[in-house]
Amino acid sequence: MITGFLSSFGKYLLxxxxxxxxxxxxxxxxxxxxxxxxxxxxxxxxIVFLISVFIGAVTAVQFSYQLGxxxxxxxxxxxxxxxxxxxxxxxxxxxxxxxxxxxxNMAAELGGMRQKEHxxxxxxxxxxxxxxxxxxxxxxxxxxxPVLVLLSACVGIMGGYLASVPTDILSHQDYVRGLRxxxxxxxxxxxxxxxxxxxxILTSVSxxxxxxxxxxxxxxxxxxxxxxxFSDILILLADYCIAVILT
Amino acid sequence: xxxxANIYKSFxxxxxxxxxxxxxxxxxxxxxxxxxxAGKTVLLKILVGLFQPTQGKVFYEDQNxxxxxxxxxxxxxxxxxxxxxxxxxxxxxxxxxxxxxxLDMFTNMTRKEKLDRVNFCLERVxxxxxxxxxxxxxxxxxxxxxxIARAIVLxxxxxxxxxxxxxxxxxxxxLIDELIMDITREQNxxxxxxTHDMNSVMEIGENIYLLDKGEVAWHGSKDEINDTxxxxxxxxxxxxxxxxxxxxxxxxx
Lengths: 247, 253
Description:
The complex is a heterodimer.
Chain A: H1 2-19, H2 26-67, H3 76-115, H4 118-125, H5 129-164, H6 172-180, H7 186-211, H8 217-246
Helix pairs in contact in A: 1-5, 2-3, 2-5, 3-5, 3-6, 3-7, 3-8, 5-7, 7-8
Chain B: E1 2-11, E2 14-24, E3 29-34, H1 40-47, E4 55-60, E5 63-64, H2 70-77, E6 80-83, H3 95-106, H4 111-124, H5 140-152, E7 158-162, H6 170-187, E8 190-195, H7 198-204, E9 207-212, E10 215-220, H8 222-225, H9 231-237, H10 241-252
Helix pairs in contact in B: 3-4, 3-5, 4-5, 5-6, 6-7
């Protein structure tokens, strides 16, 4: 098992190393990055939006329930929703959701290309397939996923507002007061660091699973599942490591 | 000219190719034939560099393929065209985009020049007016033609065809064979075809290597097949009882 893990890890590093090479034609790579930004970004906005609204809403409702019998001021709801969304929920939940949506899609796309000999065809033409097929996905993710995480944080805070102000849990003024209290700008940095790391993990791990797929449709399905499972595990592990190191 | 020198290839304990030495000549249709599992595809994949041999060398003219640096390898690869058994056409691109892909990737041609070249290649393979169709919207034979058009779009010096006739009816197979042969002669390229189609062997086999159990069991041309007593080629070519009967009758006459 350890040998298998080390072998896969070595293969993963070699894949990344192969990816860092001079593009055969810069504008082809640029087009591919733009296409991926569109696919990952625009294609995921709705799901990220929906999940974020509910995350913010649930956080607000749960926290108000916990504050019910205490002397903690209600405006803390805004503060807690803001911080928990920015520090933890927006980057992590977005990362996990995108691992499921985008990661499995990338693994299936590359795996399908491998099985239909598209990758072999490109290799024979002289295309560095890792650089052309994998790196644009990673670069696109590093560009667009932090933007999605930022959006998620904003929408999550709005979700908290929608769940607490119209339902009279607290007033508009209290929620805004909570949002403006104890703000630490460093938390935004923390959120962005997490979003970059998670974007890299979910894309590179998913591409690795798809790029080296062997066998038939069962193996392709397994690679797609593995892409999600391994990405999720690594995202949670990285989340913990970042929390320990940066806070 | 492509030369394979003492090629061995094993997958784990299984030895697939044993001491293969072969010369594939320019301007000729070089065939690698043999039964399923004889090692044809593995040899072809070694020749194009998709597999590394366990031992042995592959020379393109006098360049050792597996000792080329990145730049040299890329330059050489641009001179290689390949037609895959299943076409390997990019299914989310149209026929035109498929053929244009190598031009987009490796040349600085203008859009108009690229379109002209694509149309020239499509005309060359007798396909006109399919530019905007997707591979799934054309027949198997047409997909093979598109594959050939894509393989020749960069004017390669080396053309590889893996089972070009698989899944095609005999008439279309002959057309594809003739097309490959014409292109080989016209452009004076080294063409290597991996096949087990008997019509192909007898039509275009100018330099044939028969593989059996991972070894070269026979080497010659289509004209030599009838004259040879080598059992291994006779068994392969005249595999069916009907063909064996015909051959016996021909020999008796």
